[in-house]
Specification:
Pfam families: Neur_chan_LBD. By secondary structure, the chain is α+β, with helices and mostly antiparallel strands. It has five helices and twelve strands. A hairpin with a 2-residue loop joins strand 11 and strand 12.
Length: 338
């Protein structure tokens, strides 16, 4: 009991010191060090607001603001998290292992009532920017990635908090996700990939997730790697094992070196093969050859004479050229087929 009382006293002392320290910072005369009046007023109000949100209110970034009780109260809305895919870049595609390496930017927007304030009390200040480590962030992770890394260190990830309690956090990820090969439209193969966003900590009765695509930037949101490209990026909601999630689906077809290479090869090979069949069936004239008396021609020798005469005919050279072209078509085709 005495130990708990001592901890309580230490907590009060720490809180009092933080408040006094914050008041001293808020009372700095910024104009004395050459700061413009408007900017000095902004710094003061910005510091006062930060002290109010994170010091005076005793905010804890390890405590979730999600409402849940035994009987769900319909008058209290679910905790809504908007997940927006803002940027995606394909770094590599391994068709054999069916794995795609992707760089992407994902925004999380949600409302935390503990971080709301009245702008009139802070000279009309509508928002504040803090490091993302200072606030609670929902655990909406990518569930189907074999490798997942946050690209930038914590000190470079900033969260924006608005006066109504809305929080916006942008995170950069590197992910390696599985893609299934689709050979239905051979030879135009493509990889079917997805990015699954799930929060397994809470059920769908407590939270609501929704998705959006490319709402931040006007251009430069999708980048390919030259050999493969993104197509048909869609977002939809999925309910799995009592947990709601957002899923981004997209196809990654291979870019061919020549336009419509597959159809070109198929049509070209078909035409050349048809020409070869026509050439074989065409009649050819052969000059009279004197028969050697007393020698009967067997079936094998007869066929050999026919083949030799056909080889020396005018059709054989054209037939040979067509077959070489046919072989070249297949060489080009398989050179661009993995």
């Amino acid at each position: 009991m005495e130990f708990k009382g001592l901890l309580h006293i230490l907590y009060l002392i720490t809180l009092q010191y933080a408040c006094c320290y914050a008041e001293n910072l808020a009372g700095v005369n910024w104009t004395e060090i050459g700061v413009a009046d408007d900017y000095a007023n902004f710094l003061t109000k910005n510091q006062e607001l930060y002290n109010e949100l994170f010091v005076a209110r005793g905010y804890r970034n390890d405590l979730a603001p999600i409402y849940f009780r035994g009987n769900q109260n319909d008058s209290i809305p679910k905790f809504d998290v908007l997940i927006s895919l803002q940027f995606i870049q394909l770094l590599g595609m391994n068709a054999q292992s069916q794995m795609a390496s992707i760089s992407m930017e994902i925004d999380y927007d949600y409302k935390d009532a503990r971080l709301a304030w009245n702008p009139e009390n802070y000279d009309g200040l509508e928002r504040i920017n803090v490091q993302s480590t200072s606030i609670w962030i929902p655990a909406n992770g990518i569930s189907n990635a074999q490798t997942l890394e946050v690209v930038y260190p914590d000190q470079f990830n900033t969260a924006t908090i608005y006066a109504n309690g809305t929080v916006s956090v942008s995170l950069q990820y590197y992910a390696e996700t599985r893609c299934v090969m689709n050979v239905k439209d051979f030879p135009f193969d493509e990889q079917l990939c997805s990015i699954d966003m799930f929060n397994n900590a809470y059920d769908y009765q407590s939270i609501k997730q929704s998705g959006a695509l490319f709402t931040k930037y006007k251009e430069g949101t999708i980048y390919d790697n030259g050999e493969w490209s993104f197509q048909n990026i869609t977002v939809w909601y999925e309910l799995f094992n009592g947990t709601g999630g957002v899923k981004y689906d997209f196809a990654i077809p291979r870019n061919t070196t020549f336009p419509l290479l597959g159809w070109f090869v198929i049509i070209d090979v078909g035409l050349v093969s048809l020409a070869c069949v026509v050439l074989v069936t065409l009649p050819f004239e052969e000059g009279p050859k004197p028969e050697k008396p007393g020698i009967e021609r067997s079936g094998v020798s007869l066929w050999m004479s026919v083949i030799v005469s056909w080889v020396y005919s005018r059709h054989f050279f054209i037939f040979f050229i067509f077959q070489v072209a046919n072989l070249a078509n297949f060489v080009v085709f398989f050179a661009h087929w993995d």
